[in-house]
């Protein structure tokens, strides 16, 4: 489970499993991609690769 669903503070009843907003510190330390070009999916056909690239461009 991600840390976003863990609550240390009191929250309204029934919302404890909802993700909370990240704190500025958590946001700064979160992993991120430098570019969508870093996404690699192995074993795609040429048609699937073209469709994936088109979806990223849209």
Give a verbal description of the structure.
There is one protein chain. The protein is an all-alpha fold. Helices cover 31% and strands 0% of the residues. The chain has one domain (3-57). The chain has helices spanning 24-29, 46-57.
List keywords for this structure.
58 residues; mainly alpha; 2 helices
Whole-number count of domains:
1
Q: What is the mean pLDDT?
A: 78
Reading the helices and strands in chain order gives: HH
Q: Per DSSP, what share of the residues sits in E-state strands of 2 or more residues?
A: under 5%
Shape: elongated
> What is the SS-derived class?
mainly alpha
Characterize this entry briefly.
With 58 residues, the protein is mainly α. Helices cover 31% and strands 0% of the residues. It has one domain.
Layout of SSEs?
Blueprint: H1 24-29, H2 46-57
């Amino acid at each position: 489970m991600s840390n976003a669903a863990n609550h240390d503070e009191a929250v309204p009843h029934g919302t404890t499993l909802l993700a909370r907003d990240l704190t500025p510190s958590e946001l700064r330390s979160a992993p991120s991609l430098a570019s969508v070009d870093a996404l690699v999916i192995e074993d795609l056909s040429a048609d699937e690769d073209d469709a994936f690239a088109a979806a990223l461009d849209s």
